[in-house]
Amino acid sequence: MSDDRPAIPERGVGGRNWILGVLTSIYLVNFIDRQILAILLPQVKAEFNLSDTFLGLLVGPTFAFFYATMGLPLALLADRVNRRKLIAASLALFSAMTIACGLVVQVWQLAIARVLTGVGEAGTGPASQTMITDLFPPERRGRAQAIYATGANLGVLVAFAAGGVIAQAWGWRVAFFAAGLPGLLLTVLLLTTVRDPQRGARDQVKPQDDAPPLGAVLAQLWRSRAFRYTALGACSTCFTSYALGSFFPSFLARSHGMSTADIGFTMALIMGACGGLATYAAGHFADRFGRNDPRWYSYIPAIAAFAPLPVAPICFLAQDTGIALAAAIIPLSLTAAFIGPTITIIQRLVPVRSRATAVATLILIDNIVGLGLGPQFVGIASDLWKPAFGEDSLRYALLAAMAGSAVSVFGFVMAARHLRADIAARESAAPAPASNG
């Protein structure tokens, strides 16, 4: 099916870089709204008299299950409809639900608002990531996806820095109001300045006219050993990353006596600023080395998963706050480094009109295991070990969650062993693009 729309320019309002910036900003507010609860947990815990197990449920499964499961049907929709409109509707929903979190009077109402926040956020990621793939040529996609992924780090920066200050000054409810408003403004900007790019315009294969059904996409992904091992590496990284992102602020408050504002600034500096640089660097080096050997798209996440392991015991067991924070830089900075390379891998393993569904499948696995189980594991372990360790039980629960990084190293290294063969098989089976001459 031909597409007579004019090509999207590189620069200017509505250009490729502009669209990438808008989509990254949407991912930024996505993570503000997702992570704002972590810095507010001590105040929410005190107001509703909650256990760590329930806090883990509130941060993890309550959000993650619906975020992950709704991702697949919304991704199937993204492979078939105008992606810009789908992103706009999803953005408006999760922004409104974040504001609603500040209006609750009972904890079950907060849980429902978080569920609907997850439903809204499910509609933005796969659609945005496939739009980016259609905007940039293959040799620039790792960096482009990594720039998009820095939205996670920047969102964490704003959530922790601004959220900590606002919560300390005016309370946790006002922090939710402040987190939700920017997304409503971005909805207007998206609808007025961005258009959906032509699918597959920058690929060397011809996109099929119709998106295949879900079962066909899942069967193709399952046949790819590179996908299976990549999914193992990614979900294990997410297990550790979400465990740290959700409970590290509480760890600093309990074990090191830091104030909410100081915790917010610290988390913003490490996970936001340092993490953003690390996330971009991962995509940059994956593109640089991956030009000649695509296995680097797996090696880079493997390195990022291995690097925190030697310093994690120092981070969680040190009694001195300065030593603990210095050791935390590597684990906290690398939490999103896998995203750019991993998304680039996944989209090379499937046809053009299956990309959003493939990304959503990975997100489903990542979030059920990572966001669904990571924070919950830490909350349960902390409560179980509290009789033995008191307030320091959270130290050991977080240290135990680092096992996810070790599993991740194995997954990404194994994925690299099969990546070249699986990419070659996929591209050799694809139809060649039609000649313009």
Summarize the SSE layout with pairings.
Blueprint lengths: L15 H33 L3 H8 L1 H18 L4 H19 L5 H16 L2 H11 L2 H33 L1 H22 L20 H10 L1 H32 L3 H31 L5 H11 L5 H6 L3 H13 L5 H10 L6 H35 L3 H9 L1 H27 L8
Helix pairs in contact: 1-4, 1-5, 1-6, 1-7, 1-8, 1-10, 2-3, 2-16, 3-5, 3-16, 4-5, 4-6, 4-8, 6-16, 7-8, 7-11, 7-15, 10-12, 10-16, 10-17, 10-18, 11-12, 11-14, 12-15, 12-18, 15-16, 16-17
Written overview of the protein:
The structure is a single chain. The chain has 18 helices and no strands. By secondary structure, the protein is mainly alpha-helical.
The total of helices stands at 18
Number of strands: 0
Structural class by secondary-structure content: mainly alpha
The biggest sheet, with number of strands, parallel, antiparallel or mixed sense and barrel status, is:
none
Oligomer type? single chain
Note the gap between the termini. Answer: 17 Å
